Amino acid sequence: MTSRFLSTLALVLAAAVAVSAHHAAAGIDRAATKELKGTIKAFSWQNPHSWMEVEVVGEGGKVVTWTVEMTAPSYLVRAGWKASTVKPGDEVRVTVHPLKNGDPGGLFMSVTLADGRTLTERPIVAAQAATPQ
Amino acid sequence: MNRSTSCTAAVAALLVAASAVVMQAQQADAPPLGALAPANLSKQRPAAPFDVTGTWLNDIRYKGSWRFGPPPANVKLKGEALKHFEAAQKAQAEGKVYHDDIGQCWPAGLPMIMTRVWPIAMVQKPTVIYMVSGFMNSFRTIFIDGRPHSDPDVVVRSFNGESIGHWEKNTLVVDTQFFVGHHHWIDSGVPASEDTHIVERITMVNPATMEIEYTITDPKGWDGEMKFTKRWNRVDDQDIQEVSCLPDLNQHIPSTQSKDNVR
Predict the structure, then answer these.
(1) Domain locations in chain A?
(2) Cβ–Cβ under 8 Å, residues B108 and B121
(3) ipTM strictly over 0.90?
């Protein structure tokens, strides 16, 4: 169980930084969070990063498409994700660390689905693994 | 022994000697055995002190985790490296990304490829260690069959360089050179050049923890030695998947597309 715990801990930590390790992320405002309430336009389940596009209706009814960068499917699976978790047309609330320059893009933090479930990129088994068995 | 017999024996001895010389010359001209040639694998060698075969993930909790920087205090950057470093510092202060070549699909290259947050699969044979990174499937070979470095006039330079290893007691010492010297970075703002030279001293802290001490020099880029120590943990429940850097992926990675990036 110790090795499983350490392995899971490694995944938790890796997932936490995965989105910034592919490339430099100085353009991301990690101190800020922004909630996007909108509709999934696209979701790509791919390596080394998955991504989603979220259409958000802004002031005056103008639709703005936000691009949201995510980590790799191997980490997302451990956080409870599947390729079918979100699909175009789904109503969602997505929390991101936004770009500093104000462009509609950011790093994924969490999504709340229409059924009320909230998913992040952190392995959901972490709490179980940390419990002595 | 009469004179005729003696003469025949002398001629025979001469032929044998000549034959041996020809065979040696042929062997010298023969291409070296590949790392996976059965005749190379089956050569008598001392048993390797450890076997890194497995899947490993950089320990981001350990000493600076995935970065090979900022340059240690004993290192003095110079020339183009100093210009890049100062420009990168300025860009970072402005919230910009400096020369994000990895984000533009250039290979991370050694040393950075070793400390990405995707695992690395390693396969060790008596003659060679192969590494495939979960990041862009970057491929690295460490030859441990006793061969020297290639002729500099023949070698094909690469982002992971040419790695030649040998055992020193319980340490695998790996010498890597012949790097590509463009779009290749030691750390943000610290470029690798064609003269970058990396020595890794690889040890096993325990069967599930590997440690590598890096010594990085580059007479074009700085005076002194950069030294870093990193650790990796086995992740036995992970495999390496196919990974490609694709243009349509980058279109959806906000931080690589930002107009604020300093190219």
Answers:
(1) 2-130
(2) no
(3) no
